[in-house]
Amino acid sequence: MIQNLGKSFVIRATPGRTATLSWSTNADGFIAVAINHHVSIISSPTGSVDVTPPDTTTYRIFLITERGGSVVGATVTVGNTNIIFSDGFGSGDTSAWSVTQ
Question: With 70 as the cut, is the pLDDT of residue 99 above it?
C-alpha cells in the first residue's frame, strides 16, 4: 500500500536553471525511490537528482518498500523568484504576514 504523506514542497527556480530534488530515508525493507515525469528510479535510500522543468511542474517522489511505500509532492515553480514579504512582525503576530510574487 502506498501511503500519501500529505506533504508537499515548493521549490523556486529561474527559467533554464536547475532545481535539486533530494531524499533520505531509513525505511525498513527499502527497495527504491521513483520520481515521475521520466526522472528516474533510484536504488539508494539517500540521494538527489537535478531537474530543469520548462514550466512549473509537480513531481511525485515515491518511496517503495517491501511493505508498500509512501509518496510526497515537490512543486518546482519556474518564473519570477523575487518574493517580497510584508508583515506585522512588530506585534509578534505572524497571522499578519503575506507574500507577494
Answer: no
What is the b/e burial string over 33-60, where b = at least 16 CB atoms within 10 angstroms of the residue's CB? bbbeeebeeeeebeeebebebeeebebe
Q: Note the Cα 91 to chain centre separation in Å.
A: 32
**Calpha distance 41→36 (Å, rounded):** 9
Number of domains forming the structure of the chain: 1
User: Domain with 74 in it: what CATH number?
Assistant: 2.60.40.10
Residue listed under C-alpha cell 501511503: 3
Stretch 41-45: mean pLDDT = 88
Q: Which domain, by its residues, includes 11? A: 2-100
